[in-house]
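I'd like us to work through together how a protein chain folds, taking it slowly. To get us started, please write out a protein record for me. Go ahead whenever you are ready, and we will take it from there:
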Amino acid sequence: MDSERIRQILESVKEGNTTVDTALQSLKVLPFEDLGFARVDHHRALRQGIPEVVYCPGKTDEQIVSILEKLTKQSHRALATRASASTAALVAERLPDVTYHQTARIIAVNGELPAPVHVPGAPGSCIGTVLVASAGTADIPVAEEAAVTLTELGSTVERLYDVGVAGLHRLLSRHETLMRANVVVVVAGMEGALASVVGGLVARPVIAVPTSIGYGASLNGISALLTMLNSCASGVGVVNIDNGFGAAFLAHRINQVPGYEG
């Protein structure tokens, strides 16, 4: 339930097209709906401008479908992350307008999450482009989780993949792409050095995403995480290992004109 949907209900009551009782029925699930196994947060779109996003691991397919059914009934749109192809197929059988982004492992129901704001400079409109860069091809699944999430949230995205420090000329050849980005999400495993390199080149926020890609001493992403946390470049923030979604959410927030209330 987002602010626009509530505004429509109130306007309908004001105009006499909806009774007070009917409006109350529509609003009764606020702030959450108890399904027994989950308390679906319908109030989140009002608080944050974006409905609750479903994290799939640990949930059964039926639980995921039920949560998405409840979310889309109130908000008409939803995202589910880290979803398998089989889960996506079941969701597509039960809900309309479902898209599965296989590399990103994201299910999108009924298109983009927020109502896009097209007025330049208006609160909630996007300031510029978010660049998602990956160090290696093996990092692409996490990078795609970030890129697809950003697109679904409403940010314009550019991709720059396989530009790690083992061949720095690949990154430097796209200097103009780096310079025009408003925010840069850097996804890297192994030693995670790409975030520091990018942070030293651009005058924009850099969000570093360590991945669990690498040989034994990479410790499933711990080495990359520690490298990024110890970056000598200014303006680099770090999210958790493999957390492309979290990086995208933060990047989109930075990329919005302040004052957005959903």
User: Anything to note?
Assistant: The chain has two domains: 31-115, 129-254. The chain has eleven helices and eleven strands. Residues 31-115 form one domain.
